[in-house]
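Reviewers asked in the last cycle whether our approach scales beyond single polypeptides. To address this, we selected a multi-component target totalling 229 residues and predicted its structure end to end. The input consisted of the following lines:
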Amino acid sequence: AQTVTQSQPEMSVQEAETVTLSCTYDTSESDYYLFWYKQPPSRQMILVIRQEAYKQQNATENRFSVNFQKAAKSFSLKISDSQLGDAAMYFCAYTTAEYGNKLVFGAGTILRVKS
Amino acid sequence: DSGVTQTPKHLITATGQRVTLRCSPRSGDLSVYWYQQSLDQGLQFLIQYYNGEERAKGNILERFSAQQFPDLHSELNLSSLELGDSALYFCASSVTPSGEYEQYFGPGTRLTVT
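The resulting structure, written as structure tokens, was:
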């Protein structure tokens, strides 16, 4: 079974600094997708960034970028120039066609941003 | 606003009761997913429908059932409710059940069982 592990329950970062959230996953599939979702206090699930496993290039979305290490099954999220609005719970998620593309989520990392 | 709507926003009910949660997917999306977010279990996939047909099942209890109607809206029915069913229930939709298409989440229905 696919599993997603986020080993950092909580992280803190100073405003304008950079922070990296870790995620590892376990799969025997070769074709899959990885995501980072943000859940602010409003509880809305917001897609931050996605990565296709077949792409070697790391995905970037403005201040958000990933470090995708396929062999190591690692998928970390880097947030640059952190802002107060980045404070939220961040979930790493995995999906593959093998299981109907349901999302398998990690336990989440709470990110606190200090001013 | 993701374009996915869920009603009601909050629901408070007693143990043993039955409730129905409703989801309307984004216009054009054929696939609907239900997820449960609870403190002890985290975010878990419950069930998926694609164009009216059940496509995949996750850790969904036998007391729970769902369906997708011809107009593509979906309902999640929870019966014989227990305290442990208290959770945030999300509906998500995507164009098709393929990982290349983003799943858009609704705002969730917060269920409290007393």
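The radius of gyration of chain B is 13 Å. We regard this as preliminary and will revisit it once experimental data from Aim 1 are available.
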